[in-house]
TrEMBL record:
Domain ABC transporter: 3-236
GO cellular component, as recorded: plasma membrane
Name of the featured protein: Methionine ABC transporter ATP-binding protein
Keywords of this entry: ATP-binding, Cell membrane, Membrane, Nucleotide-binding, Transport
Pfam families noted in UniProt: ABC_tran
PROSITE patterns named in the record: ABC_TRANSPORTER_2
Gene3D superfamilies the UniProt entry points to: P-loop containing nucleotide triphosphate hydrolases (3.40.50.300)
């Protein structure tokens, strides 16, 4: 199992009740998982725990056999860069860096990713260019600062950055929310092709149930989370 969650309790600071109470959840290497649940049910929070961005107050989360809680913050950063491509809901691009340099970032932080990128495309820059072209980003945009791109373009830059250097795990949080239907379908084809070729595990969060059928496994977060769910506000 490449991702493992065991007896996890996670509470946001200042909150009286926990957001996540998960006894067991795991993902096998190479599996593709569609994670769904209502807004506010804790999907992004769970992804942050899988990525070791936050640590649970109780229990363990493991990526590639390593416990996040057993590592210091520098070791966590290294392990994350080696093992994980993460497409965040808010993209998390560095706004003043060029598009190309944003895509190259994981290779700066991970020798493993840099080696894989060189092996695939000859040089790091060639690899970054490959992924930007695959994402349909016009060459004229590659030297521009990331902040100068549209939201849909930034989303695709974030995806190129997640895929460079064939990370063993790809985590994607609503990666198609700013894409039109045509781009969304091409993006999904490319994501599955890239993960298939690299043998990468894919954990994907979306509200778009039309995408669910593409995945080998669908997981409802409320079904694995024992924490009391927030009440949805309903119109009177
Ligand atoms: N940084 C934070 N500080 C405090 N509480 C937070 C923080 N981030 C999220 N939460 C709370 O945790 C709960 C779960 O939020 P989360 O973003 O994980 O849900 P989600 O299922 O991803 O929602 P959506 O589908 O709307 O993106 C919410 O009640 C939210 O208010």
């Amino acid at each position: 199992m490449i991702l493992q969650v065991r007896d996890v309790v996670f509470r946001w600071p200042g909150q009286a009740s926990p957001c996540l109470l998960i006894d067991a959840f795991s993902v096998a290497a190479g599996e593709s998982v569609f994670l769904h649940g209502p807004s506010g049910s804790g999907k992004s929070t769970l992804l942050s725990l899988l990525a070791g961005v936050f640590l649970p107050q109780q229990g363990e989360v493991l990526l590639a056999g390593k416990r996040w809680s057993a590592m210091g913050s520098a070791a966590r950063d290294r392990h994350r860069a080696d093992q994980l491509g993460y497409i965040f809901q808010q993209f998390n691009l560095l706004p003043y860096l060029s598009v190309l340099d944003n895509v190259l970032l994981p290779c700066r932080f991970s020798t493993r990713r840099a080696q894989a990128a060189r092996q695939a495309h000859g040089t790091l820059v060639a690899s970054a260019r490959h992924w930007l072209a695959a994402m349909g980003l016009p060459e004229a945009s590659w030297q521009r600062p990331a902040r100068a791109l549209s939201v849909g373009q930034q989303q695709r830059v974030a995806a190129a950055r997640a895929l460079i250097g064939a990370p063993p795990v790809v985590i994607a949080d609503e990666p198609t929310s700013a894409l039109d239907e045509d781009r969304r379908d091409r993006f999904m084809d490319l994501l599955f092709q890239a993960c298939g070729q690299a043998g990468s595990t894919l954990v994907f969060v979306s509200h778009d149930q039309r995408l669910a059928a593409r995945f080998a496994r669908q997981v409802s977060l409320p079904a694995i989370n024992r924490a009391a769910q927030p009440q949805e506000v309903t119109e009177a």
